[in-house]
Amino acid sequence: MTLQRPATLTAWLIATAFACAAGAVHAQTSQAAATEAKPAATHQATEPAPADPDTLILSDTLNYDDIKKESVFTGNVIMTRGLMTLKSDKLVMSEDAEGFQYGTATVGPGKLVHIRQENPEKFEVIEAEGVRGEYDGKKEELVMIGKAVLTRYVCGKPFDNVKGQRVVYKQKTETYEAYGGPDSAAAGGRVRSLASPRAKADAAAAECRKKSAGSPAPSKASQ
Fold first, then answer.
1. Mean pLDDT of the chain, nearest integer
2. Does residue 41 form part of some domain?
3. DSSP state, 210?
4. pLDDT at 48
5. pLDDT for the residue 179
6. By residue range, what is the domain housing residue 133?
7. Number of separate domains in the chain
């Protein structure tokens, strides 16, 4: 089952690339090197590139292997990067020779990996969960495996929901695939997809936008 997804999902799935702070540092270093390589005579004004959000990971333990370029976080892992939050029992992140990043999040029996991405501009929240989460930076794919569920909320109301044993999102083509199986989150091991009309989601966002615009600005005394 392959469906076209709205572009609003792209930010969430890129964020769930399980990028660590080392990846952000690598990107900033590459950018600095490129800037130094420009001829000194060039004085044209250019807009600074948007900075990558900081990555904060909390865990009970951390083991880093510099040779393998692998970090293993265990114990009540909570990763935040911008407006994205990931929760798991274990998070393994690695990087290949080309600089592509890979991540695997897992949990113990009876638990689920949770991912939440907020998009305040569209009053939208994307939530995904599964027994296991995998990200392939080279293919730009995110896979939720086992009891996989993806839900999109607009103004606090659920609008799109997909359940299966595996849900795969392909960022390059902005499509996702869902597969059934014995460990599906849907009944009977099937794939279950519920999509609301876009007009309803747009109306819900407009309602939140109207309420937000009507909220009184904070007084100087309260600032």
1. 78
2. no
3. H
4. 59
5. 96
6. 2-33+50-213
7. 1
**Does residue 91 contact residue 59 with C-beta atoms inside 8 Å?**
yes
Q: Which CATH number is 171's domain given? A: 2.60.450.10
Per the domain annotation, does 54 fall within a domain?
yes
DSSP state of 44: -
What is the token pair recorded at 157?
A: 């109301």
Asked if residues 199 and 207 have their Cβ atoms less than 8 Å apart, the reply is no
Residue 219 lies in a domain: no
Q: Which two tokens stand for residue 99?
A: 């600089």
Question: CA 170 to CA 151: how far, in whole Å?
Answer: 17
Give the best-scoring range by mean pLDDT among 9-23, 35-49, 150-164.
Answer: 150-164
**Model pLDDT, residue 17:** 42
Coil/strand/helix, residue 163: strand
Give the number of other Cβ atoms within 10 Å of residue 129's Cβ: 22
What is the value of pTM for the model shown? 0.68
Residue 39 lies in a domain: no
Mean pLDDT of 157-164: 90
